[in-house]
Amino acid sequence: MEPISDHLMENLDVIFVGFNPSIRSSETGHHYANPNNRFWKILFEAGITPRKYVSSEDYKLLELGCGMTNIVARPTKAADEITKEEYQQGKEELKKKVQKYRPKIVCFVGKGVYQQYSGKKDIPWGKQKESVVRGTVDFVAPSSSGLVRMKMDEVVRIYKELPLLRDGLKSK
């Protein structure tokens, strides 16, 4: 299984950070490629994209000021296959990426991703009081996995805070 490419550049509005690529993403070379993953539907319904993109268009998010990466590059069937060592290495690499690219917001797609990155246990949804890398805003959103038990409208409601937060930061 091959890792997939990040879609990053300097001064993005938002970088979305997932756990790691799925097997399907590794096979296709695109983020959130599993048909059971609701990422693209969530972004559209939350008003982050003007239409529902498909995974093969993942690089087009850059045109909208959004990037993509993962805390761990190795594809797995499930996140519970990721080792502590991989998380530790991924956490350090992710910090370097955030420091290099300086996005306004880092959106963690799942509380577990942010727990691994920040070392914090009790994490609310949305904007975090403190960010791991100064000068950026850490934002925690529900995982887009089809395994998540939250209702879709509740997930979308949390993601809808992202454009509002982005617009508020741009006006400063």
TrEMBL record:
<dbReference type="InterPro" id="IPR015637">
    <property type="entry name" value="MUG/TDG"/>
</dbReference>
<dbReference type="GO" id="GO:0016798">
    <property type="term" value="F:hydrolase activity, acting on glycosyl bonds"/>
</dbReference>
<dbReference type="InterPro" id="IPR005122">
    <property type="entry name" value="Uracil-DNA_glycosylase-like"/>
</dbReference>
<keyword id="KW-0378">Hydrolase</keyword>
<dbReference type="Pfam" id="PF03167">
    <property type="entry name" value="UDG"/>
</dbReference>
<dbReference type="InterPro" id="IPR036895">
    <property type="entry name" value="Uracil-DNA_glycosylase-like_sf"/>
</dbReference>
<keyword id="KW-0234">DNA repair</keyword>
<keyword id="KW-0326">Glycosidase</keyword>
<protein>
    <submittedName>
        <fullName>G/U mismatch-specific DNA glycosylase</fullName>
        <ecNumber>3.2.2.28</ecNumber>
    </submittedName>
</protein>
<keyword id="KW-0227">DNA damage</keyword>
<feature type="domain" description="Uracil-DNA glycosylase-like">
    <location>
        <begin position="10"/>
        <end position="153"/>
    </location>
</feature>
